Amino acid sequence: MLQTIKYDGGKLYIIDQTKLPVVNETIEIKNAEECFDAIKRLKIRGAPAIGIAAAYGIFLGVKDVEEDDFDKFYKKFTKIKEYLSSSRPTAVNLFWALNRMDKKVLSLKDRPLHEIKEALEEEAVLIQKEDEDVCRKIGENGLKILKDNMSVLTHCNAGVLAASKYGTALAPIYMAKEKGLNIKVFADETRPLLQGARLTSFELSQAGIDVTLITDSMAAVVMKKGWVDMVITGCDRVAANGDAANKIGTYGVALLAKAHNIPFYIAAPFSTIDLNTSTGDDIVIEERDKEEIIRGFGVQTAPLNIKVFNPAFDVTPHELINGIITEKGIVRAPYDINLKKYFGL
Questions:
Q1: Residue 93's closest CA among 250, 246, 239, 274?
Q2: Closest to 133 (Cα-Cα) out of 204, 253, 52
Q3: For 65, left (φ over 0), alpha (ψ -120 to 50), or beta?
Q4: DSSP structural state of residue 285
Q5: Annotated binding residues for substrate, as ranges?
């Protein structure tokens, strides 16, 4: 199985996903600036993976800081935290991981600075380990709604390449593979950056899973033909009412699934659920450079002076979601009530 993020001997390595599937290259991230660049330029992407990378990134940013008291150290820590936080605005795991590292620092403010740095490193490693465990549990819970010979459609990439292992939306598919079940996958190409084509089809085929790549505009046709039994996608943020932000085009897939009476599920760890965001209308949607559409992958496909609207995400209303597959179980409507129950509120 591919390993998206590897931390070994004090060094952080990631697969550069901008070069897949043509080149499978692992690069080293040496400092916070390189971590910021990797997140911003999508060398590392996927909500869980972004959070893990940010945790390591902030440690790399402060490990060589030499100060004589906590307040000076914490001031530099906060500056790096704010810097990394600005890399991408939508994925809540980024902020969740950085805030967790912040809490760790504050809990040790009376300790020597070398101990604080050691604790930060340990916390980043723990975040990655916990993500692996969480993704496996998401896979096990999602497996409960799958049956042998089912066909699942997915959008964007929420698999091994989006997390430490297994992924979220693809975790049930990997669990099914381990159990000997035959699950067929339709992968939307996912315009404009083609994460489904470049990443999902790549990792599933590498794992020996039956995957068929389709363009985004073909989803309706395969649904109408009766070739899709279920839709499972990942997401970057779930609001308190169950609205879910995911890669642009997910909302359209959910509408198509509703029209064809096909169950639509979101897969997400609890770290992606943001009870402080009331509804999907409150989620900040990242807008990316028009070059991604006008000259995607270096090939001009539109007039250079044309106006472009390029949001990276859209929000699927909770009414279209049959369930949210988490590490604690499958949360179902009413989400505003049941999400709080899972949090013990």
A1: 274
A2: 52
A3: beta
A4: P
A5: 45-47, 88, 195, 246-247
Q: What is the distance between the alpha carbons of residues 135 and 216, in angstroms, rounded to a whole number? A: 26
d(CA 265, CA 229) in angstroms, rounded, equals 12
Q: Please state the CATH superfamily assignment of the domain spanning residues 5-136 in this structure.
A: translation initiation factor eif-2b, domain 1 (1.20.120.420)
List every span in the chain annotated with CATH 3.40.50.10470.
145-342
Which position among 131, 188, 229, 236 bears the catalytic label?
A: 236
Q: What was the pLDDT predicted at 113?
A: 94
At 83-141, the pLDDT tens digits run: 999 999 887 899 999 999 999 999 999 999 999 999 999 999 999 999 999 999 999 99
Inform me whether the pLDDT recorded for 345 exceeds 90.
Answer: no
pTM for the full predicted model: 0.93
Structure tokens at 293: 């559409």
At the topology level, CATH places domain 145-342 in Rossmann fold (3.40.50)
Rounded to an integer, the average pLDDT of 222-226 is 98
**Helix or strand holding residue 238 (H, E):** strand 237-239
188 is catalytic: no
Instruction: Give CATH 1.20.120.420 domain extents, the chain.
Output: 5-136
pLDDT in tens, 136-175: 999 999 999 999 999 999 999 999 999 988 999 999 999 9
55 within 8 A of 97, measured Cβ to Cβ: yes
The two three-digit tokens of residue 94, written as one number: 């980024």
Place of tokens 């949607």: 285
Outline where 63-208 has alpha helix (H).
Answer: 70-85, 92-107, 113-143, 171-178, 195, 201-206
Which residue positions form the known binding site? 45-47, 88, 195, 246-247
